[in-house]
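REVIEWER CHECKLIST
Item 1: Sequence provided? yes
Item 2: Single chain? yes
Item 3: Sequence as submitted:
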Amino acid sequence: MSGPLQNTIRQWRTEKGLTQAQLAEAAGVSRKTINTIENAVFTPSTVLALKLARVFDCRVEDVFSLA
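Item 4: Structure as written out by the authors:
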């Protein structure tokens, strides 16, 4: 069995020059949601993971991976 879901949201967000609030607005969620995903407190739904990848213009696998 795999470990927890890991993400590179903070790195992608920083590279794109986005604040948590800007990313949240683009994805249609709250800034707190982005914060909790970045800190691995919350695992996003498939739909939200796809939205985030779309904002970053990359594949979901580029943002999320199994540990």
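Item 5: Key structural point noted by reviewer: Strands lie at 5-7, 64-66.
Item 6: Recommendation: ____
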